[in-house]
Amino acid sequence: MTQSNTPFWQTKSLQEMTRPEWESLCDGCAKCCLHKLIDDEGAEDAAVDTDFINDNEELHYTNVACQYLNDKKCECTVYSKRTQLVPSCVQLTQDNLEQVFYMPTSCSYRRLAEGRGLPSWHPLLNKGKKSAMHKAGMSVRGKVIFDDMVTEEQYEDFIVVWPLHDLD
Ligand code: SF4
Ligand code: SF4
């Protein structure tokens, strides 16, 4: 393969990518729309809902998704208003790349930041289609309940490990 037809994610760093390139990297798995809890040894409340992690904290994923997620398409239904409607909805950008290690291990941005490349099921390697990702079980499709169905205190009952799985 020559340099000219080598895909951009193999020739550019995350910081060097154009906005459309950056946006196209997102696989649309929607794992980042799941509520996460931190297990903080020093905290009075052992596990609390979070959108940030510190070095001494352990992160747990739940299968409780944001109520504005379409769990079949794995798409946000309020994209243009998401930050007003869900203040904790923090999108990864080139300006807050240090938070990439807070993303699930299968997240494209985290994979590239760790030098692991894109997986075979990624939409960019499957004509833009998400079907290979869904088939590989790498999205949230069919696995979630919504945060308007439970209280925050109940999130602990919905801790799951599948969002931590990755597959090449
Ligand atoms: S986890 Fe990463 S790749 Fe998946 S939807 Fe979120 S930002 Fe995109
Ligand atoms: S507002 Fe949209 S992008 Fe943000 S967490 Fe909810 S469904 Fe996901």
UniProtKB/TrEMBL annotation:
Indicate the transmembrane segments per the record.
Answer: none
InterPro entries the record matches: Puta_zinc/iron-chelating_dom, UCP006173
Give the domain of life: Bacteria
- Residue stretches in coiled coil: none
Q: Which HAMAP family match?
A: UPF0260
Into which family does the record put it?
Belongs to the UPF0260 family.
Q: What is this protein called?
A: UPF0260 protein J1N51_05015
Organism equals Psychrosphaera ytuae
